Amino acid sequence: SQFQMPELQGLIQEQNPAIDLCGLHASEAMHVLNNELNNRRKIARSTGRRLQAIIISNPRTPARLTAAIEQYLLEHGLQYTQAQPGLFRVLLQ
């Protein structure tokens, strides 16, 4: 897929697959995102390691979904970068 950039390879582990929100409505996507990030935060806390979560909402996704994801991350004070449009990398610790 177009998201297989070399620096991502090491980040996507079995317990930490990319959170794929493509094709979801914003409200649905926020529900999934919240659950997924909470689960991963628990893993990060229990292992005492920093975890990077990858969130995908592809460029064909309505812009409001990408905006909603960004707003969610900001509201929850999460550190993130947007590697390319619709591809977020979030640091959980």
From TrEMBL:
InterPro entries: PAM2-like_domain, Smr_dom, Smr_dom_sf. Residues 19-93 form the Smr domain. Gene3D superfamilies: 3.30.1370.110. It comes from the Eukaryota. This is Smr domain-containing protein.
